[in-house]
Specification:
741 residues; alpha+beta; Immunoglobulin-like; 38 strands; 21% helix; 30% strand; binds (2R,3S,4R,5S)-2-(hydroxymethyl)piperidine-3,4,5-triol
């Protein structure tokens, strides 16, 4: 069964039964082995080997994570663990795969529990294993208590991406409180020059690439927001300083598939060994396991590339496309869409939307999306959320006439929703004030005038499914933009017994996945975009149910170059929506040409978000031409291999990206100049990833190539000699397509 359909089925079960697998089942073709003589496990896939072994006391030790080894290479058995000193016992200085708080552990635990008698000592030892269709399952058990842990390992053969997760079982007769639980601990090979790359941000300023050395002590990346967040994204890459570059050198990388509060801890211990532990955020966390119950973690995916940061992100992109996305292994190409938000904000009307749709259709737009403002008493952000019925003042006959017109114009229809939220000024809140996350008798903080519905509650899930199901059954809707415009506050669930209230951190997100899965099951044609006031919910967990994501509300085409660079470190351009909007842009008041705005957006999934009523005939002509060009090469941009040729970071005046199709028959080059100064000469740009012997014809689709550029040359020529795009002026852009002849 394909991976994604298993996911969806698991998620539905969760909603019905309350408990189900969070882990993504791995591919059944995993290359997994166990060497009984030396008690060593290994997984192999696409040039990567991951190995671990059982040591003399039954701990599971990491042995190798990196480039692939020959099948018969002699891996060492896990060494005997030994204390370093009276201060640092063996479990704190041994590279363990999964370590519980107990036995004097002073480093980051993968698991920490509390027994009803106050005891918190948990010491896990090997208790058996199974080689499964999906990889390896290792069973651990406490030295005396009936607390069992299962570690699940898989490796996607085609991309070498490792999947790790854990499940803890309470087989004691008393309740057990889980205070901290990670999906996995990953140990890096020993080196003292590691540099951590990660992503930070805020609303309208997401996807900033950060770097810092991994020094003695800990570095924490996390979200305490109840959602993925943009302050940190649950992704990392680790290279070696001055060794790992954009296209060279070893890079270890990974991402946690979880859309709730999460945490990644990077530790360099007293012996200089580095490890990464990722899972549920222990901040305000507690999960009570009754006798017989279990708790599963999200999946921590990890990879290795010898080809620098570029190689690492290409692997991640390929993995998302072939395993994670709902359409995997061959997700549909993203249609060119129009979105009404920046044009009308809340002032949507049938007549106004029809006028925009008619204009959008002439450009070649394929999907018309009506954003916020169409439902309840929604004239601003102070009312209406929760009431998912059409506003009859704005749409007297419902959505049907608008949708019919959009369909006649040859486009699909999409709609904005924000199902997890409620405004206090709504019929839903008036009827069910207890449905929001809250602490009894305490103020309920609002964010954007709204509160968060408690998705951990079954009646709330039922309401959301029912409202959306009705909307999608009664209307010909092909697409939902699923928004989420605030983080949590007062994270209480007063209806549950006190000891169980903090399950919210797990149950909310698990039920969100189940709702998305159920909507997709009932309406298999409907596609979904994950949006959280911009890029606040982009992660491998939500991507299993989302065909595309909205990376940021910042639509300034120059800012977007850097954000796209950051986004692409972790996520594929083929899910990243990018709209062409008005100039001057509302964020920076920066003016740019329509062509520049298009070229910036065409590096992802193209959309138009401007008010078309203000466009001139010339602008219509430019847009129509560039949309046609985009359609002809979007498969390469959305699904191809991305090479970040010139980085826009560090105030670089120039940047360039290249996308090369899987067949290497086409490549698309985009180049941007912030501003010219001092008569600088444009550099020649050397391409990558082409077939050296194949001949490629070059064609500029915007801007020009230098006069001395040949019309046709070999891949070797374009890669070794290069092409010059003579940009001059401020905010200039050019793009060309290389087609094999
Ligand atoms: C935040 C989103 O990011 C915007 O694109 C828009 O949909 C607004 N919400 C609507 O309220």
């Amino acid at each position: 069964m394909p991976v994604t359909s298993l996911n969806r089925r698991a998620a539905c079960l969760s909603l019905l039964g309350g408990m189900a697998a969070l882990a993504v089942p791995f591919r059944s073709d995993a290359d997994a082995r166990f060497d009984e003589r030396i008690k060593v496990f290994r997984l192999d896939g696409d040039g990567v080997t991951y190995a671990f072994g059982i040591d003399s006391v039954g701990q599971i030790q990491a042995l190798h994570w990196g480039g692939s080894l020959a099948v018969d290479d002699p891996l060492p058995a896990a060494p005997n663990p030994s204390d370093f000193s009276g201060f640092d016992r063996a479990n704190s200085v041994t590279p363990l795969e999964y370590v519980a708080f107990g036995g004097g552990l002073v480093t980051e635990p993968s698991l920490k529990v509390a027994f009803p008698d106050g005891g918190r000592d948990l010491v896990l030892r090997y208790a058996g294993h199974e080689m499964t269709a999906e990889g390896i399952r290792v069973r651990l058990k406490d030295i005396s208590a009936e607390v069992h842990v299962e570690l699940t390992y898989g490796m996607d053969k085609a991309t070498g991406m490792l999947s790790r997760s854990a499940r803890v079982y309470n087989r004691t007769r008393r309740p057990l409180r889980i205070d901290q639980m990670a999906a996995a601990t990953l140990n890096l090979p020993f080196a003292d020059d590691y540099e951590l790359h990660y992503l930070t941000g805020r609303w309208a300023g997401e996807w900033t690439v950060q770097k810092r050395p991994l020094e003695a002590g800990s570095t924490v990346l996390e979200s305490r927001l109840g959602m993925t967040g943009s302050q940190n994204n649950p992704w990392f890459a680790v290279g070696r300083k001055d060794v790992s570059e954009e296209e060279n050198g070893p890079v270890w990388f990974g991402a946690l598939a979880w859309s709730g509060s999460w945490r990644m801890v990077f530790e360099k211990d007293i012996l200089g060994q580095s490890r990464i532990t990722a899972g549920y955020n222990p901040f305000d966390f507690a999960y009570l396991l009754k006798p017989g119950e279990s708790l599963e973690t999200p999946v921590f995916y990890a990879g290795y590339s010898p080809d620098g940061m570029g190689g690492a992100s290409r692997r991640m992109h390929r993995f998302q496309r072939t395993v994670i996305l709902p359409g995997a292994p061959a997700p549909k190409l993203r249609p060119v869409l129009y979105n009404s938000w920046e044009a009308t904000e809340f002032a949507v009307t049938e007549q106004g939307q029809v006028a925009l749709a008619e204009k959008a259709a002439t450009l070649g737009v394929e999907r018309f999306v009506m954003d916020d403002g169409w439902f309840g008493k929604r004239n601003n952000d102070r009312a209406g959320l929760g009431d998912w019925t059409v506003n009859r003042e704005k749409f007297p006959q419902g959505l049907t006439p608008l949708i019919r017109r959009v369909r006649e114009l040859g486009m699909e229809f999409g709609l904005w929703v924000e199902p997890e939220m409620v405004n206090p000024d709504s019929d839903l809140y008036r009827a069910h004030p207890d449905w929001v996350i809250n602490f009894k008798g305490r103020p309920r903080s609002e964010g954007r005038n709204q509160m968060v519905l408690n998705l951990a509650r079954k009646e709330v899930c039922d309401y959301i499914i029912k409202s959306l199901d009705l909307l999608l059954s009664e209307n010909d809707i092909a697409f939902l933009k699923w928004d989420h415009n605030r983080s949590w506050s007062e994270p209480g669930w007063p209806e549950r017994p006190v000891a169980e209230q903090q399950r919210l951190y797990v149950d909310y997100t698990r039920n969100l996945y189940a709702i998305l899965a159920e909507i997709r099951r009932r309406h298999p044609r409907v596609e979904i975009e994950s949006c959280a006031g911009g890029g606040g919910r982009v992660d491998l967990g939500i991507m299993r149910f989302s065909d595309q994501v909205w990376p940021t509300d910042n639509t300034d085409p120059f800012d977007r170059l850097k954000m796209r660079d950051g986004f692409s470190q972790a996520y594929m351009p083929g899910v990243m929506m990018a709209w062409v909007t008005a100039s001057p842009n509302w964020v920076n008041k920066r003016s740019t040409s329509l062509e520049y705005r298009f070229l910036s957006a065409m590096q992802g999934c193209l959309g138009i978000g401007d008010n078309l009523n203000h466009w001139t005939p010339d602008e219509f002509a430019t847009a129509k031409r560039l949309i046609a060009e985009y359609k002809a090469m979007r498969a390469t941009v959305q699904r191809g291999d991305l090479y970040r040729l010139i980085s826009p970071q560090d105030n670089s005046p120039r940047s360039a990206t290249l996308s090369v199709s899987g067949t290497r028959r086409q490549a698309v080059l985009f180049a941007f100049l912030h501003s010219s100064s001092k008569f600088e000469t444009a550099p020649r740009i050397q391409l990558r990833g082409l077939e050296p012997q194949t001949r490629y014809a070059v064609r500029a689709i915007a801007g020009t190539v230098a006069d001395d550029t040949p019309k046709v040359a070999s891949g070797a020529y374009w890669m070794n000699h290069g092409v010059k795009l003579p940009l001059r002026g401020d905010f200039q852009a050019a793009a060309c397509v290389f087609d094999a002849v």
